[in-house]
User: What shape does this take?
Amino acid sequence: MRRRGLDQSDYYRGVRMAPYDLVKELAIALVAVLAVVLILAGVLSSPDEPPVTIQSWAQHAPLDLVATATAELQGQTISSDYGPPYNIDRDAVDHDRPAGASVQAFGPIAPQSWAGVHIPITAASSDVLHPLQLASASDPKLAQALLRYRAAARAQRSTWLSRYAAELGHAHMAGGLPVIADPAAAGPLPTMMATLLLVARSGGLDGLLLQSGHFYQTDYTGPLLFLGDGRYLPGLAHAQHLLGDQWGMMNETGRYPGQAWLWLYTLWYQIPPYSTASNADLLVVLTMGVLSALLLLVPFLPGLRDIPRWVPIYRLIWREHYREARRRPRG
Amino acid sequence: MAEGRRAGGSWTRALRRMIERELPTEHLLPDQEPAYVASWVYVFGVVAIAALVWVMVSGVVLAFFGPQWWHVSPQGHVVNSIHFWSVQLFFIFMVLHLWGQYFGATWRDGRATTWMVGVVVFLVSIGTAFTGYLAQQNFASQWIAVNAKDAINSTGAGAFFNVLNFGQMYGLHVMLLPIVITTLVAVHLVQVRMRGVVKPIETEPS
Amino acid sequence: MNQPAPYVHWGFVVLSLPNLVLIGVMLGLFALALVLPFPGRRHRRPAADEERRDG
Assistant: This one.
């Protein structure tokens, strides 16, 4: 049953052996690596940039938060018409386009659509209307505004929303609230958004966005998607060189090394056709899948497995052996 | 089968004999190696394992005190720093080990599966580091989750592997993936010990 | 260490200084591993070594 070539005793026949203490080597390695780790940890510490909260967003970029919330109601953010796994983009379905602005496919390969909606997200209600509904319990003015918004026809709502969104484009902050030129044209939205901003600034919206009917919470899909829909979080990421088109996948906050081992993965996002493709993510994943398979199968691939014979690095690794072989003719 | 018959039909004895045959203790823990095992390149594997040990030890401490601890405790931050730098060293040594094994073409003489398990360890380690970044509960976690979701979603995996779900990522990072890595590394080591260190590339036809 | 890192721009390649240092360290370690003599292996007397006997 012994397979030839796999049995060590056969394999090493005629090979000169030398004493080698594996356990001592491992012990020395453990101590040496620990010493290096302790020095690096002690001298350089580790990165820990505090998380962004909805509260800090409201404090540092209030108009962006209000504009994002308005866009959620309009269904014009990334998450509101994303497609699977979060939702189906109704507008797209009506216009016979792929059911989601963020759905990627490569020819007939459309795994995102195949997998379907598993994490249902309705950004308008979960990020804006539901939190406002909860906040309106002690705010009759807000309750009235919400009632008016909900009772209005779809066309009326969309008129208010587009007027309000346009006004926000040149709004300024005064007394902690957005000031727009013609509040009446935006219906109940100025009241709704002013309250949303006040609740957000107090920290209340952080809690309301996680309100799920469960006591315990470990899933931050809703708030993270909301943060990602705005410009504040991506702006901070941009400043730290963390965007996809900044080789961001390799980078780390502060002056720390990042995931340098992802250099090839992030490289594709910098060059055409990937950098300009709307399905870049899928293309990169497929490319890396093929390349990973090639790496896995190197021992079987003519060409790839022969490179080591052409590059004389092995002559350095085993130089003692080759030197000795030249000295004593082989038997 | 022949072994099974010789062992009198006992599966237990057959398994024991197989282990004794395939991996006798002098192969598992040899006190001698071929004389050609004489290069620092051979050390990258063992230091990668040493780094992995410290990743695991510091990770166990971080997991024990919970995901918020290291953000508020100076001692916790030190343990996190140890975890961070052990991971960096683990990857550095793993990549150097991969370079060394590649340029020595050490998959020769029936060692292809050893190479393949090593590559899988590397790929699973990337996934483990990824879930670790997501489980940090800081700005980097937020941004990585928001940014990475599109790539994961494009493959359809996002429906089941939700990078925005901290609980899911944390569980995978501290439990499932470490078990997978440890098991695969153990398999990799057993493969190396079973077959022994590959001979140098022949320079002249013998 | 929490200040933004300096970045090196080289054509379309953008690398943070810490990553550049890390890659340099890796290449340096690999080169050193190739050229440095391995301790205890050089200049040993062949008589001290054993020939593999069992088969």
In short: The mean pLDDT of chain A is 93. Residues 58 and 201 of chain A are 5 Å apart (CA to CA). Residues 22-44 of chain A form the longest helix (23 residues).
